[in-house]
Design goal:
Length: 185
């Protein structure tokens, strides 16, 4: 949490410098702030305080995924690392799974938005990282979250409709993984 507070301070200082046309200082603060965020995946290597700390930063991470495309890769890598290190039942998994109802719709919206941008521009906008993060989170989400939010049906419908639009073999692999996961529910 200490580093996130420092990151926000640097973001504020950078914006202030930009308003005053102090470009070099603004860029320096921006780079420092991004470097702080790039440390986040390392802090997610089997943290010992996950049940206490994650609820306090979950909203910040969700906001960073949605509002800060420049930080999205580091944040999603961190979430994937947390999930993959906590697949076995336990308190850590329960805490992470509790936030599936928040993260999965965000990831789905970003993924479908990136697909539309890719279609319009012909460029891949890192949608595979979003896909992998959703895939990881689906491993720990519970049946009630999937059914209540309608995520499973929306993902299956979207992926089936768009399978030809994006890299066929990668999306098809995810679609079959989702279908297999859906059978569990």
């Amino acid at each position: 949490m200490f580093f996130l507070v420092r990151s926000f301070l640097l973001l504020f200082l950078g914006a202030e410098c930009a308003r005053e046309n102090r470009t070099v200082e603004s860029k320096t603060y921006e780079i420092l702030q991004q470097q702080i965020w790039s440390l986040l995946p390392a802090f997610c290597n089997k943290p010992i305080d996950l049940p206490e700390a994650f609820p306090g930063i979950a909203k910040i991470l969700g906001s960073a995924i949605v509002d800060r495309p420049d930080l999205r890769q580091d944040v999603m890598a961190s979430i994937r690392k947390l999930v993959t290190h906590n697949l076995e039942p336990g308190k850590n998994r329960e805490v992470l799974a509790r936030f599936a109802k928040n993260y999965l719709p965000l990831l789905f919206n970003i993924y479908t938005g990136d697909m539309e941008k890719s279609k319009a521009t012909g460029k891949d906008t890192r949608k595979l990282a979003v896909l992998e993060t959703a895939k990881c989170y689906l491993q720990i989400s519970d049946k009630q979250v999937m059914n209540c939010t309608g995520i499973r049906d929306a993902l299956l419908t979207s992926l089936a409709a768009r399978c030809d639009q994006v890299q066929q073999h990668k999306v098809a692999g995810f679609g079959s993984w989702i279908s297999a996961r859906a059978r569990v529910f």
